[in-house]
């Protein structure tokens, strides 16, 4: 088990069919260490607690702290912060693509591209805030437009070369399933190789489930839900109005014509999930400061923030008493998507394979498509 915890997935199977799925998490409740801290201490600690989606976590913490303290919004600075969160989503998606997708195809990871990706990620903050301090109560803007635009161009070029084999422009022009198939057939980049493997194996609809995408959560209703509910239970295995939902890149890409057509043909299977991630990777660098997806509210020393992180909706809720935190809760996307009865569990139950090795292979592809943010183990038991 790693210090960050892990997800253990057990499949009971018989004759190539999955009879039952058990998903258990040993992820620690990291927010507990923030109790009895001042808001300033919280904001200095959060980036150290979360190595993945650190910008999204820090921004959610900042919004929640400001709401609990009754501080005014900072429209210009927050627009810059939202841009950093969006760019972090590109980094997170691209990192998983460069690291995990080659492994699915039996290829080595592109370590050179990954190193360049990390270098760019560190440089973006320095182009927007003094000393790169973006998520503190006293952050100061320092916008270097030429430098920032240069980094965007370098990031776009990296994505084009390392993921799309020089075919980024052609991928961006795709609007329907036929054009996607033509792209896959005529490109040798990593993205096309992975999609081509889905077509060749007839895994386009693999892992389809009926779990719906998480709707927009209104602040007042969410605040009431978290105030009345057993917060520990809600944070570890969240449901909304008694139902499981998924909070993934697919949730954000529902309105895309290509996604709508693919979903009508193959449901929420592997193809539509991988394409949704690719659409995010290609679209975000072109729209660095999109309309905010963050919502925030607070009253009586309580602050609640929702931020769209790379893997889905992230919620931070804190309560202050005499200037210190006496309760802090975080609901991460992984808790929605790896819920014991959630989208991954339902997708795994739909798998059918010729043998145990094939079943494990299918499960690995589906887990990567849903994308946990921590280590996981898959165990198969034959009935």
Automatic annotation (TrEMBL):
Highest taxon of the lineage: Bacteria
Q: Which organism is it from?
A: Methylomonas fluvii
Q: Which residues cross the membrane?
A: none
The UniProt entry, under Pfam families, shows: NiFeSe_Hases
The name this protein carries in UniProt is: Nickel-dependent hydrogenase large subunit
Q: Which Gene3D superfamilies match?
A: Cytochrome-c3 Hydrogenase, chain B (1.10.645.10)
């Amino acid at each position: 088990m790693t210090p960050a915890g892990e997800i253990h997935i057990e499949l009971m199977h018989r004759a190539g069919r999955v009879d039952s799925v058990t998903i258990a998490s040993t992820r620690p409740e990291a927010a507990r260490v923030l109790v009895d801290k001042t808001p300033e201490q919280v904001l200095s600690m959060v980036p150290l607690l979360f190595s993945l989606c650190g910008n999204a976590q820090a921004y959610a913490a900042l919004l929640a702290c400001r709401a609990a303290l009754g501080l005014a919004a900072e429209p210009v600075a927050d627009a810059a912060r939202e841009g950093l969160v969006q760019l972090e989503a590109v980094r997170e998606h691209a990192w998983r693509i460069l690291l995990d997708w080659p492994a699915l195809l039996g290829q080595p990871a592109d370590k050179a591209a990954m190193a360049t990706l990390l270098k760019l990620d560190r440089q973006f903050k320095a182009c927007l805030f003094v000393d790169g301090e973006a998520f503190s109560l006293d952050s100061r803007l320092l916008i270097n437009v030429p430098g920032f635009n240069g980094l965007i161009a370098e990031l776009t070029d990296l994505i084009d070369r390392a993921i799309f084999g020089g075919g980024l422009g052609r991928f961006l022009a795709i609007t329907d399933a036929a054009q996607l198939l033509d792209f896959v057939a005529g490109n040798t980049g990593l993205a096309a190789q992975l999609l081509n493997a889905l077509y060749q194996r007839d895994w386009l609809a693999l892992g389809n489930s009926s779990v719906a995408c998480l709707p927009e959560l209104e602040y007042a209703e969410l605040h009431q839900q978290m105030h009345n509910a057993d917060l520990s239970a809600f944070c570890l295995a969240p449901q909304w109005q008694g139902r499981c939902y998924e909070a993934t890149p697919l949730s954000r890409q529902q309105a895309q014509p290509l996604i709508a057509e693919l979903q009508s043909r193959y449901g929420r299977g592997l193809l539509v999930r991988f394409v949704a991630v690719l659409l995010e990777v290609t679209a975000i660098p072109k729209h660095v400061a999109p309309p905010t997806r963050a919502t925030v509210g607070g009253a009586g020393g309580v602050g609640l923030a929702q931020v769209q992180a790379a893997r889905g909706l992230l919620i931070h809720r804190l309560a202050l008493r005499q200037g210190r935190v006496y309760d802090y809760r975080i609901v991460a996307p992984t808790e929605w998507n790896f819920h014991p009865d959630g989208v991954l569990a339902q997708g795994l139950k739909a798998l059918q394979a010729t043998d145990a090795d094939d079943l494990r292979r299918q499960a690995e592809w589906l887990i990567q498509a849903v994308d946990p943010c921590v280590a996981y183990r898959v165990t198969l038991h034959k009935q």
